[in-house]
Design goal:
Layout (H helix, E strand, L loop, with lengths): L8 E7 L2 E6 L16 E5 L5 E14 L6 E6 L8 E4 L3 E8 L10 E3 L25 E7 L4 E6 L11 E7 L14 E10 L4 H8 L13 E4 L25 E5 L3 E9 L6 E5 L4 E6 L2 E8 L2 E3 L4 E8 L6 E8 L14 E8 L4 H9 L37 E11 L7 E5 L12 H5 L21 E4 L4 E8 L5 E5 L4 E7 L25 E2 L1 E4 L4 E7 L4 E7 L2 H5 L3 E6 L8 H12 L1
Parallel strand pairs: 4-7, 6-11, 12-15, 14-22, 23-26, 25-33
Antiparallel strand pairs: 1-2, 3-4, 4-5, 7-9, 8-10, 10-11, 12-13, 15-20, 16-19, 16-21, 17-18, 17-20, 21-22, 23-24, 26-31, 27-30, 27-32, 28-29, 28-31, 32-33
């Protein structure tokens, strides 16, 4: 590593093979390295199939990422965790060691990966597996079938908020946009996340208390690839300490006159971002792994769980450094957090041939100008689905089965006014020791007792669907909060989204109204936002046997119950014995 002048060492942390330096007065920290290429063992069989093998150790370590110390969850000592790079046809094997203390379990969900024939590897605790016990390990094994931008994260409690996430990039196959096809020259992965100075469990406790009034906790900061500055003048928590000038902007070095594919992932617990690069126009080419006709844009709105790819041209400009901006859309929050500066910044510098110019570009704050058309927010929406046209034409078929669900967050007096999230009349909670996949396969009883006659537990909304059926799902949102929903194991067609005019609260689904659907090659994706007090209609084909979660990706809504599941029966896969043993262990605690 090379540091620049005025670099003062304030911390040295050695975590496995990772060495992290925290510096005080150096404007830039060191460029993010692509750790996913360093910790993998690659095996190639006689048929040429590659197997990517990883050993991951999950543990908490205290870090002053932005000047405020917090116990973060690190994977192999890294935050964000490793980015996996694979190709279509690869098999991925990740042995996850839970080194968390006490009785804290964990899991890994591979967001957007379809898991065809490997439903048990989906990582959804209470649905497809039990949590990995502390001191134990579990090996995930699955195939990469489709190219695109994906990611992984914990599916236990608030662990994602505490840092347990990373990227997953798949190339090859029949992808249209690629370096091989000369669509772009190089690529970078940009992971956006919000940040709370308190632990996820502490923030969740506040949300469940009377003090919150049912208002979802608003972040205090945000990161680009795990980095950002923080102004300690904003800090108001009297129980914690803020050390000035510890945080740094994420730094990216680009070459002039090249085309970069920027893969953007929103790993946040709550925040919707508007992503932009000063004075650089985007050509958006991918949404949630689906390649689309190029869409010109100055900014990209991106909700929790979503991914986009955009081509950026680095032209000869009259400056060599530019701000990358990820601004949290405060229109999506229910109150203003005075600790938060909603605009998270990274810095792009054009590479120079001289050391003098390199020093100059690194020591100067960019003077680039923000796009004028993103100065204000008045909506909390995704990128307009009507402008996103998949390259592979696929019309939405007529449905064989229609399911209508109503979402609502309710504060109940019998629960001390704690907010609980509902699909219809069910507020989900994981079945301890009895995930629904195991129940469906007859491996365990939902009540863990011999006399239960009810297949599913009382906190489970499971919809049975016949194989190959086209399911139409209508979601009616009765909340003042938008809901970015994610469907495991499938892409879906978005055939309708309706948001009522601002200030109106009556945009929910009305079956007596006439509804028009976009069925001619509508966008397909796996995560989308249902507007506040609005409704949406999606369709998907039940062509992937298993039990698949459908839930809000805002962590506060998921942890308080906004999850349902689809059971595509005729499941034939075998559950690994270690998963059965770990569930048995959970039942004895």
């Amino acid at each position: 590593m090379t540091s620049f002048k005025r670099c003062v060492l304030v911390g040295l942390i050695c975590l496995g093979s990772l060495l992290t330096l925290f510096v005080v007065e150096d404007f830039f920290q060191f460029q993010i390295r692509d750790w996913g290429l360093r910790d993998v063992e690659v095996e190639v069989d006689s048929d040429g199939q590659r197997t990517l093998k990883y050993e991951w150790h999950i543990a908490r370590h205290t870090l002053p990422l932005d000047g405020v110390e917090k116990k973060m969850i690190l994977v192999n000592g890294m935050f964000p965790g490793p980015t996996i790079h694979g190709k279509v046809g690869d098999r991925v094997i990740v042995n996850v060691h839970n080194d968390l203390e006490g009785e804290e379990t964990t899991s890994v969900h591979w967001h957007g990966i379809k898991q065809r024939g490997s439903n048990a590897m989906d990582g959804a605790v209470g649905v497809t597996q039990c949590g990995i016990p502390s001191g134990d390990n579990l090996t995930y094994s699955f195939d990469l079938d489709e190219p695109g931008t994906y990611w992984w994260h914990s599916h236990v409690g608030t662990q994602r908020l505490d840092g347990m996430f990373g990227g997953l990039i798949v190339k090859g196959g029949d992808e249209h946009y690629s370096e091989i096809n000369n669509s772009y020259d190089e690529e970078v992965v940009v992971i956006l996340s919000d940040h709370y100075h308190r632990s996820g469990e502490r923030v969740l406790q506040w949300y469940l208390s009377r003090s919150s009034g049912g208002q979802e906790p608003v972040p205090s900061n945000g990161f680009i690839n795990g980095q950002n500055v923080y102004d300690c003048e904003r800090f108001m928590d009297t129980e914690l300490t803020c050390i000035p000038k510890v945080g740094r902007h994420a730094h990216f070095e680009f070459h002039k006159n090249k085309r970069y594919r920027v893969r953007i992932i929103n790993a946040s617990a709550m925040a919707n971002f508007r992503f932009s690069i000063d004075e650089h126009e985007f050509q958006v080419i991918e949404a949630d792994s689906i390649e689309i006709e190029p869409v010109k844009a100055h900014y990209i709105p991106i909700s929790s769980g979503q991914r986009y790819s955009a081509i950026v041209h680095t032209e000869n400009k009259n400056r060599n450094s530019f701000f990358m901006r990820a601004e949290m859309n405060q229109e999506c929050f229910n109150y203003k957090n005075e600790e938060l500066d909603p605009e998270i910044k990274g810095v792009i510098t054009y590479k120079s041939n001289t050391f003098k110019d390199l020093l100059k570009s690194r020591e100067s704050i960019p003077s680039s100008k923000k796009w004028e058309d993103i100065m204000s927010f008045d909506m909390c929406l995704d990128m307009d689905e009507r402008t996103l046209q998949p390259l592979t034409h696929l019309d939405a078929p007529e449905p064989d089965q229609t399911v209508v669900v109503w979402t609502k967050i309710v504060q109940l007096h019998q629960n001390n006014l704690a907010p609980y999230a509902y699909f219809n009349r069910t507020s989900w909670a994981p079945s301890i020791g009895a995930p629904n996949l195991h129940v469906e396969l007859g491996l365990v009883n939902a009540s863990m007792g011999p006399k239960s006659t009810k297949k599913w537990g009382g906190k489970q909304m499971v919809v049975d669907i016949e194989p190959e059926n086209v399911v139409q799902l209508i979601i009616s949102n009765g909340d003042e909060s938008p809901h970015p929903f994610h469907l495991h194991g499938h892409d879906f067609w978005i055939v309708k989204i309706y948001e009522p005019p601002k200030g109106y609260i009556h945009g929910q689904w009305d079956p007596d109204e006439h509804h028009e659907y976009k069925t001619n090659n509508p966008i397909r994706r796996d995560t989308f936002t249902v507007p506040r007090f609005g409704h949406a209609v999606i369709r998907f084909k039940a062509d992937n046997p298993g039990i698949w979660a459908f839930h809000c990706h805002i962590l506060w809504h998921l942890t308080t119950g906004m999850m349902m599941q689809f059971n595509q029966n005729h499941i034939s896969e075998k559950i690994p014995q270690i998963m059965l043993d770990q569930c048995s262990q959970m039942r004895t605690l």
